[in-house]
Amino acid sequence: MRVLVLGGGAIGRAIAESLRGEFEVAVIEKDEIRAKALEESGFHVINGDFSYTATLLKAGVDKAELVIITTMNVDVIRKTVYVIRTNNKDVPIVTVLPDDVGLDDLVSQINEEYEAEVKVDYAVSPRNALKDALIRTVERIGERKNANLLVRKLKELRNQTDSLLIVMHDNPDPDAIASATALSVIAQTLGFKTQIVYGGEIAHHENRAFVNLLGIDLRKVSRGSYELKRYPFIALVDCQPNGNLTTLDQSDYKKIKILIDHHQILQHLQELIPEDAFLDIRPDVHSSAAILAEYLRMLNISLSPLMATALFYGIYIDTKKFSKLSHIDLKAIEFLAGKVDYELLDKIEHPDISTETAEILAKAIMNRRIYKNVVVSNVGFITNRDAIAESADFLLRLEGITTVLVFGIVDDRIEISARTRDVRVNIGAVLREAFGDIGSGGGHSQSGGARIPLGIFKLAKDKGSLLRLAEEAITEKFLDALKVKEG
């Protein structure tokens, strides 16, 4: 992709350094000394004022595929955008904007000043960019803190013994089993010998298949048995000392040193277990497996395909087939998706997710792009067209999302599915407006589909470029029909 970076200052140089090698980058810089320094560093540099038509044409703005404006001078930005649009109406423009200027304000000023209809595709505010970066950092600190506190407690226990008993509720489901197995992996990295136990039955055929196919070592124990009494410390996973955990006697509670759960906290829990126990109880998370996946991610513990598959399936079951997802659940899915053994997942006799559907769902999650409350996702080249619709149904369940479009390339056409829960939107009409002139589109008020023939593009050898072009065109047309601005 041909990228023009307008301005060779600190921001422009940093962007150019990050992009070169992967993209064809040219930098326009007015200052001769700075331009020479950039050139000596190996950059393709055009020395001149980038708000002038001659300079932009010399840099090849008419053939550019992306233009990045790095100045904070709004007057210069307005003039530059107008000149760019005069010579290239379609190239995406990304600009930095001062905190007190919005993208809509900028476009209005340009249109009023030059009496022309122009568009700016993306704008970045330093304040908002800094805020987003800080929020991500704070979230990561919180994630790392939880993992570090768990490790600290395990090391403290390891100084006293090398044995740890991990107890699940009486009739463990995949979430409990996967979570207990993940905690066992973490403890074993610190030198523990672990045993996972339960007191009831694993009755469901899918749960039995889950245990057998993944080779998980579980042991059924009875209340008051030697197996329970011989361990000095207990970790509870996906449960608390209440009605669904009958394995432990009251006298066993004092040995509970770790408790990880996503259910509502038991009212008198602090009175039942030692004060120094490590507790991580998060009722806002919908699966314990997601919490354990976070630990593994923060501790950089290598995941086997078996472990990743177990956690992924545990999240899937406890979130009711991904119908309710918290931020933590979603991050866990993203972390695990590329590590899952989908053939093994298929063998667990899951009736709703085939191997290919699971892979496509993972792609839909990882490739999603969010524009306000709208998600657009590209699942690439596939053979199962039905999985596109299933992915759209899934993404619509994400918090804060009201409208979804998922597309993939099947044989010689682009297949599209869209969903909405916004009562103001008729998604069938939106799809007709967006894609009716280049293919076919329609549906009902809340769901619909579209199909676009690839035509001569099906002969393209560079599949990556074809996907990028398709994504840009589909996103622009869909958001335009929705009256949503990409910025």
Automatic annotation (TrEMBL):
GO terms for molecular function: nucleic acid binding. Residues 1-124 form the RCK N-terminal domain. Gene3D superfamilies: 3.10.310.30, inorganic pyrophosphatase (n-terminal core), NAD(P)-binding Rossmann-like Domain. It comes from the Archaea. One of its GO terms (biological process) is potassium ion transport. InterPro entries: DDH_dom (IPR001667), DHH_sf (IPR038763), DHHA1_dom (IPR003156), NAD(P)-bd_dom_sf (IPR036291), Oligoribo/pAp-PDE_c-di-AMP_PDE (IPR051319), RCK_N (IPR003148). Pfam families: DHH, DHHA1, TrkA_N. Coiled coil: none annotated. This is Phosphoesterase.
